[in-house]
Amino acid sequence: MKSPSSLFLCVVGACLLPVAAGAQQQSPPASTLQRPRLVVLCSVDQLASWVFQQGEPHFAEDGGFRRLQREGIYFPECAYQHGCTETGPGHATIGTGAPAAVHGIVRNNWWSPEAKKLQYCAQETMAALPELPEGKDRGPGLLLVPTLGDGIKAHLPGSKVASVSWKDRSAILMGGGAADAVVWFENATGNLVTNTRWAKTVPEWVSQFNTTRVLDSYHGWQWDRLAGPDAYAGLQDDRAYETPHGNGSKSRTLPQRVTGGLDKPGKEFYAEVYASPIANTMVRLAAEACVDALDLGGDPVPDLLCVSFSANDLVGHGFGPESVEARDTLLRLDRELAQWLAFLDRKVGKGNYAFFLTADHGVGPTPEAAKAAGVDAGRGPLQMRARAAAEKALIDRYGAPGEGKRYVTHVGEFSLFLDQEVLAVQRGARDAEAFLLEASRVAAAGAQMAPAISAAFATADLFDKANSPDPVQKALALALCRDRAGDVQFVIKPYWLDGTTPASHGTPHTYDREVVGMAMGGGAPRGARSAEPITPGFGVVWFAHLLGIPRPTGAVDRLPIEMLTGR
């Protein structure tokens, strides 16, 4: 992994993890290890390795991260194989162990040429519970492989599976369709929400959680720096490209009162909460309520709990990962994790649960910060420029497509979709598949000429590149599903950003793929640091081993010897 000091030296070609050979073979649990009563998959949204490493010197000695390092094993070589580094694909990998090309969640949203609209990754026709209309039409129906939770429910009668997050897609794609409870928060109302995919009526504990309105008690909470000055040394607290806080102050600094600009809790307040450390606190409290209500880990039949902390992502997008707000949110999460682990100690018992923490994706630095460090960086409407360059190349090759027509019908998520009707007119009697490949290559060559585009490929040329020695082609190949991909895939240059958001992710570059990975309990060696490369799907493979059930279909990780023996 890159150290903090070498952050801006990351290059596109840093290591990508191979798909493990023989991944479907399943080792039985080591006889010296006691089967845990509860296994916990924990995700921190947007926790890149470089962000973690820069925050690490400032973690509390009694915080959650230090405890995981002292009592467990740290995997600094944890990275996604796929290049579609977004929340949906990441959480699907955490829940299934598979890369996006296998589990099918290729982006948060992808374009459907047939429907001529975007397809949301957690969209599924599903009735809402009458008391929670916000939960309508959400589910894991687009997943192509089962989650660990699905496997646990199939192989361990009496087991319970639950998943909790602020984001719907995070909870849904980690937990899966067979879970006993999948819940998330809704920004419009601040409610904890589920739907008829998982419940015939609103679970009593969810109703009680919403009735008590703990979230509303945070209206007016002052967000100030948690730690001393050293924890924020070198960070600038007022940068012109940051998004102002959502309380109407138009300020980009701390301290700020979290109100949403309202006199009492309402939609704008809940939206501001989502982009503050309060959201992580609420996820922890909801997870604790879930454990209590379902009595997770309360008997010898193993249970699974998936928890995703979402606030770090919103704060990182809004202020940048090297902002005071992002650092403070990480330090506060450190304390939340300590409380969460202490709760599990009391409720389930030390030694009775296994815990794996990772992240759904990383993040790039703000282009302005990268540029100040001497790196070639910038921002702009890069995808639209790639589209324009591809359109020009196609016109130059085949002529104008006709009045009101375009060759490129859609651009998004670093993909170009060509208009099949326009191509049909231009190809004449030529073979349709061959002509589409030719046109896609022409468009890719054109797109690559656009400013800040480092590479572009006809999608058809990438499907057989899952084992390519070229890391970019490999990452792109492992992000593609044949019926969920455009005709051209392109990559922006490292440290460049499409759009005006302070910071983002979604590329195959190392800062977006390399994330934190930590395991504790279940016989994991204490205070260890492993040089083994893993993916964020490692947790489901490890847990399947501990529970003595088959690993989920498509999972790719192998367990290092120390995880098999507990030494």
Query: How many domains in all?
Result: 2
Helix content: 25-40%
Number of strands: 19
Structural class: alpha/beta
Please report the distance between the alpha carbons of the first and last residues: 24 Å
According to CATH, the fold-level topology of the largest domain is Alkaline Phosphatase, subunit A
Level-1 CATH class name of the largest domain: Alpha Beta
What is the fourth-level CATH superfamily of the largest domain? Alkaline Phosphatase, subunit A
Number of helices: 19
Instruction: Please identify, by name, the CATH architecture of the largest domain.
Output: 3-Layer(aba) Sandwich
The Cα radius of gyration reads 23 Å
The spatial strand order of the largest sheet comes to 7-6-5-10-1-11-18-2-19
- Categorize the overall geometry: globular
The average pLDDT score comes to 93
Could you list the spans in which at least 5 consecutive residues all have pLDDT below 50?
A: 1-32
What kind of sheet is the major sheet? 9 strands, mixed
Describe this structure as you would to a colleague:
This protein is α/β, with parallel strands linked by helices and 567 residues long. It has two domains: 389 residues, Alkaline Phosphatase, subunit A (3-Layer(aba) Sandwich); 124 residues, 2-Layer Sandwich (Gyrase A, domain 2). It has 19 helices and 19 strands. Strands 7-6-5-10-1-11-18-2-19 form a nine-stranded mixed sheet, with helices on both faces. β13 and β14 form a beta hairpin. α13 crosses α15. It is globular, with a radius of gyration of 23 Å.
